[in-house]
Design brief:
With about 500 residues, the chain is an alpha/beta fold. About 45% of the residues lie in helices and about 15% in strands. The protein is built from 16 helices and 16 strands. The strands form four sheets. It has a six-stranded mixed beta sheet. Strands 9, 10, 11, 12, 13 and 14 form a six-stranded antiparallel beta sheet that branches. A two-stranded antiparallel sheet has the order 2-3. The chain is globular and about 95 Å long. The model has no long low-confidence stretch (mean pLDDT about 90).
Length: about 500
């Protein structure tokens, strides 16, 4: 697979799957059977991975049960398939991964695990809603959970359930138009399952987001265990993994930056932060691919190694001995590629990415090969879908193309469009000049200038007709915006029936 292998599907109702879903079971078995004997803090990677799976499964089962979600436990399975995303109101192209996990778990006798990345920056629970304005479909962004200054999903303060529901109901009023009827119906079905509030009240933001998504999934069935990153990193296995990386911070940073540079060069990416910024140095400290959670915000995490020991620091003054990592009082979170590396090497037998994650994990693969010599990066999957609005609206593209062609033709051949005796006379004179310029010995320069002057005169005479076409193009521009609003794929999952989304992976 290469960077160019992955692409978001453009057609409505289309699913992108690479490799094909029928290969997932085989790849899962190959991944869990592959030797992984690299040392991690003096322990074998394979043994630490067994511990990571046990610890993570136990935490996930306990957490899912605390949510009150009816989800079967893993039984005796030690195989895990996983996926994840930030907690929130994401679109069906992301939600489809949950249904794929659930189906694959049943087919392979594995445990399905969905990881909520609550260590990311909070987005105020933003969701995109369609509306009809002056008869045309448009879109608006709504902050469904404005939390005033919250920096991370995991630190969002509790918000009363009724306040959230009022915001959700108010936003849903934009669907009160026949063009959006099916989406109003889908949202109504969703609200009927959550409007009581009892299943969702009293929980933090991430847990509430999970419960809302599970309420939406319920009619289509989804048996995933749930776990947020902030809980998953509390295991001993993760701390050993992180400690090993922090002790080898200089080596890791060199590999990390080298592979990012290679990736940018091969794909001709000009911006140094694409897909992620390089790790930097600060005095005798080396930046690491982890975050240090300090209060309600996260800071870049640096490591310095001196005769007195290894010390961790953030972007605010103060150092912390690395040993504090194992006390459980030090809140560190992995950045995207390192989270993916931990999931794929230590926690699960098969991971399903979206398109963005699938692309950057090509870098993760290269880092794994160099940081853990002899370890083959486990295969992973990429799933993405596109589901647009059902609204049937006029596509202005053919008319725009026709008008654009006509205006261009008017400039080049104005004689085809003029009316009246004067226009006919000029057209006749142009035809004569064109005939003359083709004759042997003709004064092409003089004749060419006369043709140019005639074209200018005829074009000027068509000013009214051109103005009318220009106005038509301007009017059609609003229809272009409407087409874009209808084709938008980022509308939240609850505007679509879950059975319809689940069908995409069947």
């Amino acid at each position: 697979m290469s960077h160019f292998s992955f692409a978001v599907p453009t057609e409505n109702g289309a699913l992108f799957a690479l490799p094909p879903q029928k290969e997932y079971g085989r790849l899962l078995q190959e991944n869990v059977s592959a030797p992984m004997d690299a040392p991690v803090e003096g322990e074998k990677l394979s043994k630490l991975a067994e511990e990571a799976r046990r610890e993570t499964l136990k935490l996930a089962v306990d957490y899912t049960r605390r949510l009150g979600v009816e989800t079967p436990g893993p039984g005796g399975s030690v195989k895990i398939i996983a996926s994840g995303h930030q907690p929130g109101f994401y679109h069906p192209g992301v939600a489809v991964k949950g249904f794929a996990l659930s189906r694959m778990a049943r087919e392979t006798g594995s445990a399905a695990l969905f990881v909520s990345v609550d260590s990311d920056e909070f987005d105020n629970g933003e969701a995109l809603f369609p509306l009809v304005d002056n008869g045309l479909v448009a879109k608006k962004t709504v902050a469904l959970y404005p939390a005033g200054g919250a920096n991370l999903f995991e630190t969002v303060p509790h918000q009363p359930w009724l306040r959230f529901m009022e915001k959700l109901l108010e936003s849903g009023k934009s669907l009160d138009h026949p063009l959006l009827g099916s989406h109003k119906e889908a949202m109504g079905s969703f609200l009927s399952r959550v409007s009581g509030g009892t299943p969702c009240d009293g929980f933090d933001y991430t847990s509430r987001a999970i419960l809302l998504r599970r309420a939406w999934q319920r009619p289509a069935g989804c048996d995933c265990l749930e776990i947020p990153v902030s809980l998953m990193v509390q295991t001993r296995a993760f701390r050993v993994f992180a400690s090993d990386m922090l002790r080898r911070a200089a080596e890791l940073a060199a590999i990390y930056n080298d592979e990012l540079a290679r990736y940018r060069k091969e794909r001709k990416l000009r911006y140094p932060a694409n897909p992620f910024p390089d790790l930097t140095a600060r005095g005798d400290s080396v930046e690491t691919p982890f975050w240090l959670v300090n209060g309600k915000k996260r800071e870049r995490l640096f490591v310095s190694s001196r005769p007195g020991g290894i010390f961790i620091s953030g972007e605010t003054p103060g150092e912390i001995p690395l040993e504090r990592l194992f006390e459980g009082t030090l809140a560190i979170r992995p950045k995207a590629m390192i989270l993916s590396m931990y999931m794929r090497l230590f926690v699960c037998g098969f991971f399903i990415h979206g398109v963005g994650g699938a692309k950057y994990d090509l870098i993760t693969d290269a880092i794994i090969r160099r940081f853990y010599p002899g370890v083959i990066p486990p295969a992973y999957g990429c799933l993405s879908a596109t589901m647009a609005l059902d609204a049937q609206v006029e596509d202005p593209a053919p008319r725009i193309a026709q008008i654009t062609f006509t205006m261009r033709d008017m400039e080049q051949h104005p004689e085809k469009y003029g009316a009246g005796q004067a226009a006919k006379a000029m057209a006749k004179e142009k035809a004569r000049l064109v005939g003359a310029i083709l004759k042997t010995g003709a004064d092409k320069k003089t004749l060419g200038l006369k043709i140019k002057e005639l074209n200018a005169s005829m074009t000027a005479a068509l000013a009214q007709e051109r103005g009318s076409l220009t106005n038509q193009l301007a009017a059609l521009a609003s229809l272009v915006d409407q087409i874009e609003a209808v084709a938008e794929r980022r509308y939240p999952y609850f505007l679509f029936q879950p059975q319809r989304v689940a069908t995409l992976v069947k």
